[in-house]
């Protein structure tokens, strides 16, 4: 057996064997004892009460009855094959029927024996019936066990598993074996003073109670303990990484604010900074004076002025003799940042250059030379910036836009562009709820710009049903007559048979009819057209050669057209909240009043209605992201799927926000008092982080 019994492959557990192991691996990703231990019940059923056959009726949810089997037979052939069993107690008869795993179940049931049956009652031909009930042979021990189990665990299973008698009951049996034989080997993984301070149940007991609770209170305590543990090790790992980085990577010290920054602030800045922008600049300023490498996440809604903050931070780097660069995920976005920054600083103030995959070879060579000899101060581009051939004289500050599109590997390539790693500012326009930011980006310091620059009018959002389409066309004509432009976004390209969607192609036809040539020009952009054509169509819209852009969601990130004042989202109920919010942010870039029109069918699901009402009610991205988290759960928020960080089994970031804050504080205090974890009471954490069975898959957290 391996060092910890919980690393043992699942086939070695009594009652599993090779065939069942195979299906457990495929269906539930249960490979080891530890995986089974962490396959928690999804609900609990009260099993204390026994009914008589005459008292049960089809409206009841689940019932349990003690009956004796009087007859059984297999009826039908192959596909229609079913097992029918007659059973009775002293008040009446009930029929039990199985359509799956027929042979297996038939072998395991004996006529004449008494069984405890549990399931959903139904009626067939006017008589009580139960299909696929859970069965356990009657014995005083079984009754006693049921009596002790006031709350019966219910486990997720699948049709495939049920063919191997691994329904909820079957999984429960395996878990019983595991807990009875191996629970004693479960080691505590939290320091004693943490258990005492937060009144946590000990680990061994928590696992026992979460699977087989004595009562509702014990179950709550067990869940609380295991949630605490799960969040604890997530935060522990993130904060340990952060601590490790601050100790390992010294940072360049930007000790002065000089003429580049001051000159820009006094002579070039076209508008007053908001207090949120000033606060963030101050945070960055403090970070870059500490002699430790900065890693900061800057969150702010589209149009909140993140680029200006990034530029001013880069100017501080230049004042201190360093170069700066800014990396964006797409050429369009890189281009846009280049235009914006170029427009703010002007040509003669500080030299800014653009490097993307499209930069001609000759130009690249010149760029690289000027970068290496230090003449070029600010370089903006796509991941062309991290190619080995691109060498800086003294890179001190890096800005990364839309972090979730870059892997950790790409980030670290930029760190290696200088002997002392540059300071890193990560920007995102996807507002992330606080709890998610603390788990996904828990090793970064977080800054938030939560107000719009002065003079920006909030976007007016309205929700129209299909029957109000003529009003929508009217609004479009009015805005175009004022010289403005309009986006129309569709969720799909081709009509899917299952979804009755107004698809893009049909939409284009309607638009052409309502807005005919030559008076109106339309740009069309979707995923199926070649990149060059897409680029050309976008450019036509950016240059105001077309008034209407019909598109699928490819325009989500980054296209900046100040003259576009209307965003129409077709089938808006099909989009997630954060996506709707991102799309809305494409308009409202200029000083004019902008509008977002959400078109939907008359039939809306409850969630769909909440999403559209939320959009109409608020423009605040953080408020929206919190509602999105509650509606969709953390696993579906953009950027989290590929990170694997949120593979949480018991904790839920939407509902356990308070606990997460408490845990984070607890871990921070531990590292403040004992950064190296050398105190005897913290030895346990040292050991746990070395072992595989730490209560979380460490490799998932990067």
In short:
With 702 residues, the chain is of the alpha/beta class.
Low-confidence stretches: 497-502, 638-645, 693-702
Please give the radius of gyration in angstroms.
Answer: 31 Å
* Helix run count: 25
- End-to-end Cα distance, whole Å, is 30 Å
By secondary-structure content and strand pairing, the structural class works out as alpha/beta
Main beta sheet, described? 7 strands, mixed
Catalytic activity: Couples ATP hydrolysis with the unwinding of duplex DNA by translocating in the 3'-5' direction; ATP + H2O = ADP + phosphate + H(+)
GO molecular function: helicase activity
Protein name: ATP-dependent DNA helicase RecG
Keywords: ATP-binding, DNA damage, DNA recombination, DNA repair, DNA-binding, Helicase, Hydrolase, Isomerase, Nucleotide-binding
């Amino acid at each position: 057996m391996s060092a910890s019994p919980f690393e043992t492959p699942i086939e070695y557990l009594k009652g599993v064997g090779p065939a069942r192991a195979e299906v457990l691996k495929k269906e539930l990703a249960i490979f080891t004892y530890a995986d089974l231990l962490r396959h928690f019940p999804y609900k609990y059923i009260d099993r204390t009460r026994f009914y008589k056959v005459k008292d049960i009726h089809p409206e009841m949810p689940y019932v349990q009855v003690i009956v004796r089997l009087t007859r059984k037979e297999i009826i039908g052939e192959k596909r229609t094959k079913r097992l029918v069993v007659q059973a009775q107690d002293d008040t009446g008869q009930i029929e039990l029927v199985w359509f799956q795993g027929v042979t297996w179940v038939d072998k395991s049931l004996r006529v004449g024996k008494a069984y405890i049956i549990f399931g959903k009652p139904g009626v067939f031909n006017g008589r009580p019936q139960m299909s696929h009930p859970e069965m356990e042979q009657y014995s005083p021990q079984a009754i006693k066990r049921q009596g002790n189990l006031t709350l019966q665990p219910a486990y997720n299973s699948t049709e495939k598993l049920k063919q191997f008698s691994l329904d909820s009951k079957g999984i429960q049996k395996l878990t019983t074996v595991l807990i009875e034989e191996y629970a004693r080997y479960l080691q505590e993984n939290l320091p004693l003073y943490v258990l005492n301070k937060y009144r946590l149940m000990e680990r061994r007991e928590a696992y026992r109670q979460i699977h087989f609770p004595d009562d509702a209170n014990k179950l709550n305590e067990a869940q609380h303990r295991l949630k605490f543990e799960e969040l604890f090790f997530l935060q522990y790992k993130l904060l340990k990484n952060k601590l490790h980085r601050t100790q390992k990577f010294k940072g360049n010290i930007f000790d002065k604010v000089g003429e580049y920054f001051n000159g820009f602030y006094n002579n070039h800045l076209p508008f007053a900074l908001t207090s949120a922008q000033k606060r963030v600049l101050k945070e960055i300023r403090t970070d870059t004076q500490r002699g430790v490498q900065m890693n900061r996440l800057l969150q702010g809604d589209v149009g909140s002025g993140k680029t200006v903050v990034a530029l001013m931070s880069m100017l501080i780097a230049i004042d201190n003799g360093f170069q700066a660069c800014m990396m964006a995920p797409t050429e369009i976005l890189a281009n846009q940042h280049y235009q914006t920054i170029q427009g703010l600083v002007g040509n003669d103030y500080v030299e800014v250059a653009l490097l993307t995959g499209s930069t001609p070879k000759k130009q690249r060579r010149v760029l690289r030379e000027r970068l290496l000899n230090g003449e070029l101060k600010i370089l903006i581009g796509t991941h062309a910036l991290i190619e080995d051939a691109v060498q800086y004289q003294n890179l001190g500050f890096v800005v990364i836009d839309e972090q979730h599109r870059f892997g950790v590997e790409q980030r670290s390539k930029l760190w290696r562009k200088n002997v002392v790693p540059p300071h890193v500012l990560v920007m995102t326009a996807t507002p992330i709820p606080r709890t998610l930011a603390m788990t996904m980006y828990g090793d970064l310091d977080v800054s938030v710009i939560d107000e719009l620059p002065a003079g920006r009018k909030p976007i007016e959002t309205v929700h129209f049903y299909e029957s109000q389409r003529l009003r929508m066309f009217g609004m479009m004509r009015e805005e175009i007559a004022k010289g403005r432009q309009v986006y129309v976004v569709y969720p799909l390209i081709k009509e899917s048979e299952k979804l009755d969607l107004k698809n893009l192609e049909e939409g284009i036809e309607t638009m052409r009819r309502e807005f005919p040539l030559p008076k109106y020009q339309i740009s069309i952009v979707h995923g199926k057209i070649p990149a060059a054509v897409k680029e050309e169509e976008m450019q036509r819209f950016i240059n105001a050669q077309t008034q209407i852009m019909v598109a699928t969601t490819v325009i989500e990130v980054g296209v900046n057209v100040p003259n576009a004042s209307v965003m129409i989202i077709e089938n808006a109920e099909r989009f997630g909240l954060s996506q709707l919010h991102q799309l809305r942010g494409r308009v409202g870039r200029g000083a004019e009043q902008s509008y977002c029109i959400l078109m939907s069918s008359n039939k809306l699901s409850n969630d769909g209605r909440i999403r559209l009402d939320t959009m109409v009610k608020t423009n605040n991205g953080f408020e929206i992201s919190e509602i999105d988290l509650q509606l969709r759960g953390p696993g579906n928020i953009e950027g989290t799927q590929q990170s694997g960080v949120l593979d949480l089994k018991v904790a839920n970031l939407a509902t356990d926000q308070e606990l997460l804050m408490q845990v984070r504080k607890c871990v921070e205090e531990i590292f403040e008092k004992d950064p190296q974890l050398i105190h005897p009471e913290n030895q346990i954490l040292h050991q746990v982080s070395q072992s595989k069975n730490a209560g979380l898959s460490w490799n998932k957290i990067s």
